[in-house]
Amino acid sequence: MSPTIYTIILSSLATGTIVTMTSFHWLMAWIGLELNTLAIIPIISTLHHPRSTEAATKYFLTQAAASAMILFSSMINAWNTGTWDITQMSYAPSNILLSLALALKLGLAPAHFWLPEVLQGSTLLTALIITTWQKLAPMSLIYMTMINLPSTILLVLGLTSSTVGGWSGLNQTQTRKIMAYSSIAHLGWMAMIASIMSNIMIMNLVVYLMMTTALFTSLICSKSKTIQDTATTWTTSRTLAIIMMLLLLSLGGLPPLTGFLPKWLVLEELIMQNLIPMATAMAMSALLSLFFYLRLTYTTTLTLPPNTLQMKFKW
Question: For this protein, what is the EC number (predicted)?
């Protein structure tokens, strides 16, 4: 792709998110989401490979369906309340529809099936954009409509996402799919706390964005597409291997690393709200995620692939 076209596409991607985040009218928010979707499609399909074309098609269909549902829910709300204001979502059926649409947009379980497939069909850099930047616009909509969204639905979505993200990541060998399930699990934690305390949700999102970006950058540097590839990361750079180990453990939520803090605060807040069974289930699901992160850490830093004394390192 030529640099000019790439620049236009990336600026459209940025514009779409910013339009959604700064709008108070539902139609403007919808335009931002559509701009976002249309800009990422050519980025996914740049490989000109059947897998990337399939990924682009899947992404387009799910995002278009979710955007249509968001527009439909806001129309129902406008019909009943007479306002297009995002913060004035007071009609219950439209709130339920909106929360389901945003779940599909973000890839929360049980509407998560498109995310691992799309990431697997795209490059590591595109996967990074999809798992980080593309989550900002829907999360900002959740943040703006949080007061009115049904908390029960958000709690259920959060719990299922965290469990599915942990459970499904266990039998994956592709790093992109592992990162997709990791994304689903982390978004589950954010959905869980969204209706209770928004500040923790924002902190959770920021920590998730930083760690995911750092880990994807490490994977891009070491060209690791499978768990087998991560075993040879240390031949590229020993520092990179250590950083990857810390990032993986941090994503898993192992104390005293950064990723433990959001999980700790979420669990604390859930207990304060007397949702002890929910907090217990979330802690258990975090153990599932931690298992596959530990496995990845093990192959990255604690095992040596077969090598000879004369073997040359990339560094």
Answer: 7.1.1.2
**What is the C-alpha to C-alpha distance for residues 296 and 294, in angstroms, rounded to an integer?**
5
Domain spans of the chain, in order of start = 150-306
CA distance 247 to 84: 42
Torsion sign over Cα 261, 135, 162, 153: positive
What is the spatial distance between Cα 249 and Cα 293, in angstroms, rounded to a whole number? Answer: 6
Nearest-angstrom CA–CA distance, 104 and 293 = 25
Instruction: Give the whole-angstrom CA distance, residue 220 versus residue 265.
Output: 31
> Greatest CA separation found in the chain?
76
Distance of alpha carbon 213 from alpha carbon 125, whole angstroms: 10
Residues 231, 280 contacting (CB under 8 angstroms): no
d(CA 285, CA 253): 11
pLDDT in tens, 259-311: 999 999 999 999 999 999 999 999 999 999 999 899 889 888 877 666 656 66
Question: DSSP letters of 192-261?
Answer: HHHTT-HHHHHHHHHHHHHHHHHHHHHHHHHT--BHHHHTTHHHH-HHHHHHHHHHHHHHHT-TTSTTHH
pLDDT at 238: 82
Of 102, 129, 159, the closest CA to residue 280 belongs to 159
User: Could you give the 3-state DSSP secondary structure of residue 49?
Assistant: coil
Q: What is the mean pLDDT of the chain?
A: 90
**Joined tokens for residue 124:** 């590591």
What is the C-alpha separation between 201 and 262, in angstroms, rounded? Answer: 8
> Left (φ > 0), alpha (ψ -120 to 50) or beta: where does 217 sit?
alpha
